User: Which sequence fits this backbone?
């Protein structure tokens, strides 16, 4: 069964929010080559100082393999340096329905 992971990032200030958003605009793109990876969306809400990162995966196992990979560590070491004062929470969901229009 496909899963989605939503990371709720809450920067502690407007400056930290801008750094997090800029980091996603300039990200390395390492997740795209991961087996089982289906998609990525990054949503930013300046008023709430909140960034949602939604990834979808073919299975929980595919997601877990990504989290254990050296590419994950590399991608997230770059991101950590941009988000000082931020809190982050990741939540995994089963995908019940998925519609995507190109």
Assistant:
């Amino acid at each position: 069964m496909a899963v989605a992971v939503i990371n709720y990032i809450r920067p502690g200030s407007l400056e930290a929010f801008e750094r997090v958003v800029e980091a996603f605009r300039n990200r390395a793109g390492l997740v795209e080559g991961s087996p089982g990876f289906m998609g990525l969306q990054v949503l930013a809400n300046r008023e709430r100082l909140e960034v949602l990162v939604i990834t979808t995966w073919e299975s929980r196992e595919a997601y877990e393999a990504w989290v254990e990979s050296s590419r994950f560590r590399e991608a997230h070491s770059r991101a950590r340096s941009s988000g000082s004062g931020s809190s982050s929470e990741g939540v995994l969901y089963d995908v019940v329905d998925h519609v995507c229009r190109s």
Remarks:
- Residues 14-25 form the longest helix (12 residues).
- The mean pLDDT is 91.
- Strands lie at 3-10, 37-45, 50-57, 87-94.
